[in-house]
Design brief:
By secondary structure, the chain is an alpha/beta fold. Helix content is 44%, strand content 19%. The protein has a 6-stranded mixed beta sheet with strand order 2-4-1-5-6-7, sandwiched between helices. A 3-stranded mixed beta sheet has the order 3-9-8, with helices on both faces. The protein has a 3-stranded antiparallel beta sheet with strand order 11-10-12. Helix 1 packs parallel to helix 9, helix 4 packs antiparallel against helix 5 and helix 4 runs parallel beside helix 8. The longest helix has 31 residues. The protein is flat. It starts with a strand and ends with a strand. 36% of the residues are buried.
């Protein structure tokens, strides 16, 4: 399950976003540190393909893929040194797969800004710097330890020391540890060390409802430019936490009308979840049957053998083959039987690379 941590300065809309995502009653008060323990909510991944499959199969239940969101209390300047509740919250961030950094891009005299005025570039830089400072403390301790054995000629430790020095240089230059990684071994090491700036990150620009249709205007443009300077591949999703909190209370029909009136094609929450999928290189396959139609998430490039293991270890242990058909071809055929008769179903082995949107049926024997 994908686990995303929502971070940012206090009063930028994190808890309002979380409430809208999960329809939970997490605190969203107008003062810093209102969220003391991280709230966790499981959110279904919006996928119209799953609904179309369910309409055809009419199963007893429909199970979407799930994203878990963790609402982490607001960081402040000095968090890396324990300011506010910094140490606790930094530890919470280390437990997530990826980071959603919420940045306030709206002015509202009724909502206090912890640093006075609204400046998304400054706010972005403050959080980025705090994560980098926390990482520097961890990496410098590790480097000091590794250097002792590296001096005795241990090649593995010499290589690690050289890598850690490169990561520290990146952090001191204002970039993240992710920019220094060039191998899976490096990624594993930074993950083991709990390095925050090695985690994939996307940005959520919180704007007013009036600014939604225009993509947030110049203030979001400034944020995008700042993000590119630090991490050029990071995505910036424009949303309005207040708009989304209103949208979630409506019926599907009212929601569609509300979106049309606002000039928006897709809810910001859906775009945020899909951005999280892209960020971690995830894709979806489906299983269908009269009892259940279900969506499963796997990493792009995963094999049929990997996908079998997502369902159950027995599927993987006794893997024989998988039968696959594109989701839309299955919907058009209406059943596996008709899809087979039309020659739409292929039989594939364990090394077959699964494609996004395929319906898979596993044959196994244990």
């Amino acid at each position: 399950m994908l686990r995303l941590g929502i971070i940012g300065l206090p009063n930028v809309g994190k808890s309002t976003l979380f409430n809208a995502l999960t329809a939970a009653e997490a605190a969203a008060e107008n003062y810093p540190f209102c969220t003391v323990e991280p709230n966790v909510g499981a959110v279904p991944v919006p996928d119209p393909r799953l609904q179309r499959l369910a309409e055809v199969v009419r199963p007893k239940r429909v199970v979407p893929a799930i994203v878990e969101f963790v609402d982490i209390a607001g960081l402040v300047e000095g968090a890396s040194k324990g300011e506010g509740l910094g140490n606790q919250f930094l530890a919470n961030i280390r437990e997530v797969d990826a980071i959603v950094h919420v940045v306030r891009c709206f002015a509202d005299p009724d909502v206090t800004h912890v640093m006075g005025d609204v400046d998304p570039v400054r706010d972005h830089d403050v959080i980025t710097a705090e994560l980098a400072l926390a990482d520097l403390a961890v990496l410098e301790r590790r480097l000091e330890k590794v250097r002792k054995t590296a001096r005795s000629g241990v090649k593995e430790d010499q290589a690690e020391a050289a890598f850690l020095e490169r990561v520290i240089d990146e952090l001191n230059a204002g970039r993240g540890a992710r920019d220094a990684m060039d191998s899976s071994a490096h990624a594993r090491l930074l993950q083991q060390l709990g390095v925050l700036t090695a985690k994939p990150i996307l940005y959520a620009a919180n704007v007013t409802e009036a600014d939604l249709a225009t993509g947030g205007g110049p203030i979001v443009g400034r944020l995008r430019a700042s993000v590119r300077d630090h991490h050029e591949e990071a995505d910036v999703v424009v949303f309005s936490a207040q708009f989304e909190s209103e949208l979630i209370r409506l019926t599907p029909e009212e929601r569609a009308e509300f979106l049309t009136t606002a000039g928006i094609a897709e809810p910001g929450l859906d775009r945020l979840i899909h951005a999280g999928y892209r960020l971690l290189g995830l894709e979806t396959f489906f299983t269908v049957g009269e009892n259940e139609v279900r969506a499963w998430d796997i990493h792009r490039g995963s094999t049929a053998f990997d996908a079998a293991g997502e369902i159950h270890s027995d599927f993987q242990r006794g893997f024989i083959r998988c039968e696959t058909v594109a989701w839309d071809a299955f919907v058009e055929a209406g059943s596996y039987k008709v899809a087979r008769e039309r020659g739409l179903v292929r039989s594939e082995g364990r090394d077959y690379v699964v494609r996004d949107g395929e319906v898979l049926l596993f044959r196994f024997n244990v």
